Amino acid sequence: MNIDLDNSWEKQLSQEFEKPYFKELKQFVSLEYEEYTCYPQYAEVFSAFNHCKFEETKVVILGQDPYHGPNQANGLCFSVQDEIKHPPSLVNIFKEIETDMNTPYPDSGNLERWAKQGVLLLNATLTVRAHEAGSHQKHGWEVFTNAVISKLSDNRKNIVFMLWGGYAKKKVKLIDAKNHFILTSGHPSPLSANRGYWFGNHHFSSCNKILDDLGNKTITW
Length: 221
Description:
The protein has 221 residues and is α/β, with parallel strands linked by helices. It has helices spanning 7-17, 20-35, 47-50, 88-101, 112-115, 141-155, 165-169, 190-193, 203-213, and strands spanning 38-39, 59-63, 119-123, 128-129, 160-164, 181-185.
C-alpha cells in the first residue's frame, strides 16, 4: 500500500506511519487488494486527505466503512462516484439538506465538492473487501483514524465535528470540546432516520451558523 498524502497531512501523520500497527496494516491491506476485489480503488484510499488539507479543515464528518458495492466508494465517507445511484444513507442526508437549507436535491452523490470547501469526510476504516461490510475493521485503520481526529483536536481550533449515530458519537472522547464544536444526532441510515433520529437535526444550517459567527466562509451543501 502506497501512502500518497497531501504534504499538510504528511507532516502531521508521519510518526504514525512508523508505528508497528501501521506497518502491519499496510501489509494486510496490500495482501487484501492482491487477493480480493477491494474498495475504494487503491489510488483513492486517502482521498479524504488529498481533497481537504489539514490547515483548511473546517468541518469533520465521520463515517464507519466504505461502501462495498461496485463503483460506489471514492475514499470520502457517504460519497459515491458520479452517475452512481445514491445509497439510502446519502439519500437521507440530501433530504435533510433539502429541507434544512431550502436547496434542491442534487444530481451527483460525489461529495468532493464538500471536501474542497474544507469538509473532511473521514471513514473510521478506509478500505473494505467487496460485498463484505466491516471486513477490514480491527486491523489498524481505527487506530490511524483516531490519531487523525486527535491531531485535529490538539492542533487546530473551532472545527465543527458532526457525529452521526452511536459509532461516531464514541469519538467524542478524542475531541476537546472547549476548542471545537460538536454536533450529534442519529445516523442517516433508514433504520435510524425512520425512527425519527435523523430528520430535523438541522446540522447543515447549524454548522454554517457556527462558521459564519467565526467569520469563516460557510459550506455550500
